[in-house]
Design a protein that fits this description.
Blueprint (H helix, E strand, L loop, with lengths): L4 E4 L3 H12 L4 E5 L12 E6 L7 H10 L1 H4 L3 E4 L2 H9 L1 H5 L3 E2 L4 H8 L1 H10 L7 E2 L4 H8 L6 E5 L2 H8 L4 E3 L2 H13 L4 E5 L8 E9 L2 E14 L5 E7 L6 H11 L3 E9 L6 E7 L6 H6 L4 H11 L13 E3 L1 H10 L1 H4 L3 H9 L2 E3 L8 H14 L12 E4 L3
Parallel strand pairs: 1-2, 1-4, 2-3, 4-5, 15-16
Antiparallel strand pairs: 3-17, 6-9, 7-8, 7-9, 10-11, 10-13, 11-12, 12-15, 13-14
Helix pairs in contact: 1-13, 4-6, 6-7, 8-10
């Protein structure tokens, strides 16, 4: 019998991992903590438990994960959110005594979690990235505005803290005064930020380099392009298309090699319309939102990671199917309706992904319950309801047969 996989977190990225491993017969245990979690409701989940959110109480979170080892010691531990990656990485030695851990040591994790360090490393390594400054004071912000081109971005150094506080990935500032106000708003909330030039271009200029690395080399690679995002221009993807992007390989390999990264990563770029070059946006050292797209296209990253770490099968490079779309249905429909006039896409561009080969982020005929819960959560939010908070210590739920 296969050893279990313990998935930390239960949002969209987690669901792609759960379904991929479950289809191969891997017992999947989900430890969830978020108000918007749905992956633990998948039919492929063997058991689930609610634990303390890692960004609220890291020690309690780690205690909960260690307690789960009573049921699944020796399994593969897979953090699927930035906050879980941070907690696991900083407590790697303790967790590695009970699990096989799919996470890098903290000295490596810091270089992709803290965006300031990511951009500093990119600049030292000769990898193109937006002009970025890490201000230490209001005076640094004022100096930045002396020759800044607006709009500018106020981006969190650690994304998960910022998102939890402001429910947005970043701020966009269109004037000097707005940049100062946004900087002060973020720092007052305890969020360290960087100031960054805005790379012009539509959502379609975004490119993902997904890869699995070991011993300093990429074993498997997959590229895709962002079709639509939400919010447009600065938000996370809501539609992605698999496509070979040859010029993403060199900078993608360059930044991960500079980080000494091992495991799965999604590295994001944006093509700058001013010079045609791909500029580094961020590195995610975990499974990403559109994990299900690579799986649909023939590169099953969760399974090859499991086979490598648990069964000793080294992954081999393989070709992938191009022209397949990944669609986050509710977000795409929502933004397409509410931003229809500002986005100005022709109707054919909106419907094309639905008429071509595609995979949905959440809806699945053979696993419908997560989508049902997503709908219920949306309805509750529209009515002004609040989701219940998670609990600690773990409260176990066995999956129904």
């Amino acid at each position: 019998m296969l050893a279990p996989a313990i998935v930390l977190g239960a949002e969209t990225a987690s669901l792609g991992v759960v379904r991929a491993l479950g289809r191969h017969g891997v017992p999947v245990v989900v430890l969830h903590y978020g108000a918007t979690d749905t992956a633990h409701r998948s039919r492929y989940v063997t058991a689930s438990a609610r634990i303390c959110p890692p960004h609220e109480d890291e020690a309690a979170f780690v205690t909960g994960v260690l307690a789960a080892a009573e049921r699944c010691a020796g399994g593969l531990l897979i953090p699927t959110s930035d906050e879980a990656v941070v907690a696991v990485s900083r407590n790697l030695s303790a967790l590695a005594e009970r699990y096989v851990v799919a996470c890098t040591p903290w000295e490596i994790t810091r270089t992709f979690i803290e965006k300031r360090l990511t951009y500093e490393l990119a600049q030292r390594s000769g990898i193109a990235c937006p002009r970025t400054v890490a201000p230490a004071s209001r005076d640094d912000v004022l100096r930045y505005t002396d020759d800044a081109r607006f709009p500018c971005l106020v981006k969190p150094s650690r994304s998960y803290r910022f998102v939890a506080r402001f429910h947005a990935k970043m701020f966009t500032a269109y004037t000097r005064e707005e940049l100062l106000a946004r900087y002060e708003e973020a720092t007052a909330a305890g969020c360290e930020v960087v100031l960054q030039e805005f790379i012009p271009g539509a959502d379609g200029a975004g490119v993902n380099y997904n890869s699995y690395w070991w011993d300093g080399e990429p074993l498997v690679e997959f590229t895709a392009v962002k079709v639509r995002g939400g919010p447009p221009a600065v938000g996370s993807p809501r539609v992605v298309e698999s496509r070979l992007v040859p010029d993403a390989l060199a900078p993608g390999r360059g930044i991960l090699r500079a980080m000494r990264f091992s495991g799965y990563a999604c590295t994001e770029f944006k093509r700058d319309l001013r010079d045609g070059r791909l500029k580094l946006m961020e590195v995610n050292g975990r499974h990403n939102l559109s994990t299900a797209l690579a799986v649909r296209c023939g590169i099953d990253f969760p399974w090859l990671q499991y086979r490598h770490r648990m069964l000793g099968v080294v992954p081999e490079a393989t070709r992938f199917e191009e022209g397949v779309y990944w669609i986050d249905l509710l977000r795409d429909v929502g933004y397409s309706v509410t931003r229809r006039h500002s986005e100005r896409y022709p109707l054919r561009d909106y419907v094309r992904p639905y008429l071509r080969r595609h995979v949905f982020a959440v809806p699945a005929w053979r696993d419908p319950v997560p989508f049902v819960w997503e709908w219920l959560r949306l309805l509750a939010r529209l009515r002004g309801g609040r989701s219940k908070r998670t609990a600690s210590p773990p409260v176990w739920t066995a999956a129904k047969e």
